[in-house]
Amino acid sequence: MSETSIDTLILGAGAAGMMCAIHAAGRGGRVVIIDHARKPGEKIRISGGGRCNFTNVNTTPQNFISGNPHFAKSALKRYTPHDFITLVQQHGIAFHEKTLGQLFCDGSATEIIGMLLAEMAKAGVDLQLETSVSAVRKTDTGFEVELSARGISTQVTCRNFVVACGGKSIPKMGATGYGYRIAEQFGLAVTDTRAALVPLTFSEAMLAAFKPLAGVSADAVVSCGKARFAEALLFTHRGLSGPAILQISSYWRETNPVTVDLLPGRDVFDELKAMRKSHGRKAIATVLGEFLPNRLAGYVIDQAGINGNLADLSDKALVAISAAIGQWQIYPVGTEGYRTAEVTLGGVDAGGLNSRSMQASDVPGLYFIGEVVDVTGWLGGYNFQWAWSSGWAAGTAIAESE
Predict the structure, then answer these.
(1) CA–CA distance from 289 to each of 110, 260, 286, 297, 319 (Å)?
(2) How many whole angstroms separate alpha carbon 315 and alpha carbon 301?
(3) What are the residues whose beta carbons fall under 8 Å from the beta carbon of 401, sequence distance 6 or more?
(4) pLDDT in tens, 27-71
(5) Neighbours of 299 (CB within 10 A)
(6) Nearest to residue 107, comparing CAs of 117, 90, 94, 91?
(7) Pairing between strand 152-163 and 2-11?
(8) What is the reported pTM?
(9) What backbone phi and psi angles, to 5 degrees, belong to 153?
(10) Backbone angles phi, psi at 264, to 5 degrees
(11) Fewer Cβ neighbours under 10 Å: the N or C end of the chain?
């Protein structure tokens, strides 16, 4: 088995790994980044409908979920969305703000991948694809890592070993959760993990009731416990999706209800009571069709068990309809799982990492960055910003230690 000695080996050529490589090699250290995929940045490529929601200008630590809510502050403060935007602009990549601070490429997500590859090439980073780790061992001076590439085994010795291989989300793209096993091998705790930013699923009975609504979307406020998101929801053949549902999925737990307000900011009871004089001869389903998509209005009426003309409905009936719209409680039975989840909630316990460098506190030279860490962003570019910020933090710390 041939042996190569380098300064830094990075496992995972995704957003965090490539960002780390760029900065780790900034002072001339020999950096190798490996990935078992045939192409780098595959999750970047498919993100944002192929246009990559690469950051969010409104990023704050409050947009992240972690067992250690203060952990992300240092990296996010020192490498901000505006720092990454500056890099994007330097490469002439056109972009636009969609909603709620979300920035997307005007063209293709491959422009972001191309930018990162160009920066790695400029820094002298060695990218090795279709290469996986067979084993990793700690030595007195760093690590010995056995690699396998196209049936050929090699051994690399390195001073720094960076784990940037993501979580369990989207296994068809090669996600395995291997980074968690490396953490446990070296004595780091791993918090419970689960699919996040993922559609919710329901019982067969509820799915049957939803079936006529497939394809209907509506702006709503969706809440679970103290978490609350005002975005669109979408009815599908499998349950509920859309930004508001994906957001709340990170907070929902089994047996808990999710509350939906289908007409946020409006007093439905007062509006219906006022309309009773002017629209009294209209069926309540027709009246609600002026508030909501027709199929959704019909569903609300069915759930409330109230029908007839508006003039014939009592205040009690209008209160019931208002509650069915503004305080609609649903009970998911699960999620679609890692198959469609955008990210993995949980991961390597931040309590065992240095928040400034991302280095394991008790294992010098071992770093964890990006999704593999127990830092999970909201939908809307936040997880990419965590990748850039944590990758920059680790890469900069490595370069400064050269």
Answers:
(1) 42, 18, 5, 6, 17
(2) 15
(3) 160
(4) 888 999 999 999 999 999 999 999 999 999 999 999 999 999 999
(5) 23
(6) 94
(7) parallel
(8) 0.95
(9) -100, 140
(10) -60, 140
(11) N
